[in-house]
Design goal:
homotetramer, mainly alpha
């Protein structure tokens, strides 16, 4: 199973989890339990992002840094910084 | 539209957004763009949690604090502390 | 030791930890180790915030909700929602 | 001013901010205001971490990836993944 398949599998699991949360709200379940499940969904999404980043570092980023295109190198490194910065905000 | 309907509407929008992220991965779109969309999904989930908490504070929590059941009061307040604590971790 | 003393003790520990991080940077220690220590400082700050919120819920918030001032009740509940919302962003 | 000096300047500003938070607690200021200031300190720490990571990507990481030591390359990339993962938890 390559990285992409693994990511898809994780995201489909998150989708199932989220459908479960929607059902909880439809059935009027207790607010705090809904919030806890939403937080669990977010933790699963964080793990997925980390895994995607790991694949990206070992493929595109490594290729760009070894390559001769300085602009491309700067771009991929700036993107890592940007997603790290955003990860501290969500 | 009551709080519950509003929450459901938000969660269904998040579900649509998440399906879009899954399609992006299926089509092999750029890793960083996928991570950014996952972060956007998380930001939307955070807003939903905040809205659910707001409703909860104005209903269950207020009722419990005005009520005479000390254990129930403690429980609802402890739950708020717990979801706040968890929110700093996801 | 009351809640305030406990908060002060925690914050002074965080201050000592932060001074240690500053020394690490002055001595040119490895970037990733510095980032890890900054993340540890943030985890300690999160725990402190949670503890302050817990005290606040059991004192001011409980008093306001039991009181007769509707505006004051709304204000304290809105503040809880606001700090929860912010906690998902830092 | 190099990256290190910039980081030190930021961390010393955070230290001053934190001392201000300690004074607020000593003077018994309002809990929610203290929590808001702690959240501001954390936002400043996040910005500092992002800046340190940016420098690190453009120096150590770039050197390691261009180098011939496969173990070293793996190590620096794994570290990026680890601090990203942790950043979603604090």
């Amino acid at each position: 199973m390559d990285g992409n398949e693994n990511t898809l599998r994780r995201l489909r699991t998150v989708e199932g989890h989220l459908k479960g949360v929607i059902r909880m709200v439809e059935q009027g379940e207790y607010c705090i339990d809904v919030i806890r499940q939403i937080q669990a969904v977010e933790a699963a999404l964080n793990k997925t992002s980390t895994q995607i980043l790991e694949n990206h570092l070992n493929s595109c980023v490594t290729t760009a840094i070894k390559g001769n295109n300085a602009k491309e190198r700067e771009r991929v490194l700036r993107e890592i910084t940007e997603v790290f910065d955003m990860s501290t905000k969500v």
